[in-house]
């Protein structure tokens, strides 16, 4: 009879040979966990703390068991090297060496050397732009497109609500054509539309190859409620994506005025606090909206950020005015660092739950709004439900005006701005995010 662990080991070897590294991790981890039981260990240290596992069991293992474990750690080291977590791979090679592997010391040395090397290798760099609702992500995206007007940048734009507003707010440059802007509405790319993210990335890359218009980079703007971890995992979970693209960094926009409030928000059991996750996974933090707070508050915000992500680089800004070198081409995403923080990062069955008290409401109607009635309605909305609103935004056609109007109410919903720009003549739309169940928006016209 073939043991379960042996079948898993064969699958892991095949995945390694075919360079399906993410699948390989799933196979090798489960086969090793099964093998730990064979040698009388019920814990998961065989994969999570290999050094301690080998040290404890080495003297008791038979020669045959040593040989099996040696092979397992070598295969796991090779798979993890394929994913780019060289520090973690070096630990596996050291275990293989302790179990008698010949030449494992060479692999340890080369894994350690690879840690210092630059990543990329001809792949397209991807930046994940995250940050809570209204923190300034679209403002930053527009700045990037303006400063890099000579570069071909693909954009994936994800909105939580069913009405997409941000695509109207993006001021695409000459090389950012419709072909390389992909909009994903009505769900979060960290969960419900994650499959669309993978499909979108593949389509973008395939089009660029087919049309011989290589991409200089891809930027993914997540919803303000996204957990960045599953988005980052995408770059390891899909083989095609892994071969063609690499995650350059996770850039988190932080609203200096509201961050502490969002970090302190109590969530129901099992629900992650997105603001905490976004800070924890950040490679760079753009501390935005500094114009709205004083120095003492900024210092307090930085202190709170450091408590979650000690070594992250932070820059203070207003209107998302940040040096591009701080956020792009940084090669900052480090799988080893993420694995130290979240051991289950590479597991493909991770549970992820959004706070379902936060909902969205979208209105998309044809016609023009009446300015005075709109203002009356906004005043009513602000008075009645202002404290419940995290974020409202929209693009409007106002009666008697040629321009299209952008409607913005960031953070807390305690202020509304209505300003014009460009040329208009299309339907009106609002999107609101509120706490505790949806609420009815009166028709805006
Ligand atoms: N006072 C102030 N307002 C800002 C700053 N940066 C951006 N804003 C405004 O804040 C609002 C929200 O900015 P966006 O860039 O749309 O924020 P976002 O993170 O893309 O918002 P969502 O996509 O809805 O999560 C807009 O009205 C911006 O003009 C800033 O530094 N200070």
UniProtKB/TrEMBL annotation:
Domain CobW/HypB/UreG nucleotide-binding: 125-314
InterPro entries (alphabetical): CobW-likC_sf, CobW-like_C, CobW/HypB/UreG_nucleotide-bd, P-loop_NTPase, Zinc-reg_GTPase_activator
Record-linked Gene3D superfamilies: CobW-like, C-terminal domain (3.30.1220.10), P-loop containing nucleotide triphosphate hydrolases (3.40.50.300)
Superkingdom: Eukaryota
Keywords from the UniProt entry: Chaperone, Hydrolase, Nucleotide-binding
Similarity-based family: Belongs to the SIMIBI class G3E GTPase family. ZNG1 subfamily.
Protein name stated in the entry: CobW C-terminal domain-containing protein
Lineage: Eukaryota, Sar, Alveolata, Dinophyceae, Suessiales
């Amino acid at each position: 009879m073939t043991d379960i662990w042996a079948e898993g080991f064969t699958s892991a070897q095949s995945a390694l040979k075919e360079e399906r590294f993410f699948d390989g991790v799933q196979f090798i981890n489960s086969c090793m966990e099964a093998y730990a039981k064979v040698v009388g260990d019920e814990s998961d240290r065989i994969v999570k703390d290999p050094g301690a596992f080998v040290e404890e069991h080495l003297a008791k293992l038979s020669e045959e068991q040593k040989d099996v474990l040696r092979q397992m750690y070598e295969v796991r080291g090779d798979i993890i090297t394929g994913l780019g977590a060289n520090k973690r791979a070096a630990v596996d090679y050291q275990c293989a060496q302790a179990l008698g592997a010949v030449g494992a010391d060479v692999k340890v040395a080369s894994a350690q050397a690879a840690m210092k090397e630059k990543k990329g290798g001809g792949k397209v760099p991807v930046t994940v732009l995250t940050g809570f609702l209204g923190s300034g992500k679209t403002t930053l995206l527009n700045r990037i497109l303006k400063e890099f007007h000579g570069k071909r940048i693909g954009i994936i734009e994800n909105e939580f609500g069913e009405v997409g507003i941000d695509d109207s707010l993006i001021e695409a440059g000459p090389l950012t054509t419709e072909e390389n802007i992909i909009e994903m509405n009505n769900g979060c790319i960290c969960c419900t539309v994650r499959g669309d993210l993978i499909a979108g990335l593949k389509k973008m890359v395939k089009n660029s190859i087919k049309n011989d218009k290589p991409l200089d980079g891809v930027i993914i703007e997540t919803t303000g409620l996204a957990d960045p971890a599953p988005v980052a995992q995408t770059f390891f979970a899909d083989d095609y994506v892994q071969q063609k693209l690499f995650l350059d960094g996770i850039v988190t926009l932080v609203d200096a005025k509201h961050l502490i409030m969002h970090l302190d928000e109590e969530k129901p059991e099992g629900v992650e606090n997105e603001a905490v996750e976004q800070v924890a996974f950040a490679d760079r933090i753009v501390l935005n909206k500094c114009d709205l707070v004083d120095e003492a508050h900024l210092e307090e915000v930085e202190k709170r950020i450091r408590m979650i992500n000690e070594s992250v680089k932070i820059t203070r800004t207003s209107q998302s005015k940040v040096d591009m070198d701080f956020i792009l081409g940084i090669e900052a995403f480090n799988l080893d660092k993420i694995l130290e923080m979240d051991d289950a990062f590479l597991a493909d069955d991770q549970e992820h739950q959004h706070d379902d008290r936060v909902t969205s409401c979208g209105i998309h109607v044809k016609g023009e709004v009446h300015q005075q009635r709109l203002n009356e309605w906004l005043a009513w909305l602000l008075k009645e439900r202002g404290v419940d609103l995290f974020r409202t935004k929209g693009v409007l056609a106002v009666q008697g005006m040629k321009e299209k109007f952008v409607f913005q109410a960031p953070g807390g919903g305690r202020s509304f701005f209505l300003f014009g720009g460009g040329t208009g003549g299309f339907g009106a739309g609002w999107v609101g995010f509120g706490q505790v169940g949806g609420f009815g928006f009166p028709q805006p016209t």
